[in-house]
Amino acid sequence: xxxxxxxxxxxxxxxxxxxxxxxxxxxxxxxxxxxxxxxxxxxxxxxxxxxxxxxxxxxxxxxxxxxxxxxxxxxxxxxxxxxxxxxxxxxxxxx
Length: 95
Prior knowledge:
By secondary structure, the chain is α+β, with helices and mostly antiparallel strands. The chain contains 3 helices and 4 strands. It has a 4-stranded antiparallel sheet, covered by helices on one side. The two termini are 12 Å apart.
């Protein structure tokens, strides 16, 4: 299993546009074979920050995700162009 978080910071005035891209990306990503979990969050005390929790069955599923039309449109072509910062943390499950 491959698990990680992605933390993105945006301008505060972009909230609705960001939310719509996240909704579309989430819906499509959850339908991918090999996607175990895809949950996008706004940070409660910092609405300009997004935290996405992603989990894939293996590295091949993650690589397929990164090449899907919805990832290229909403992440690479949308969110990543609007972001100020991006931080990725790979996770190791306990147990």
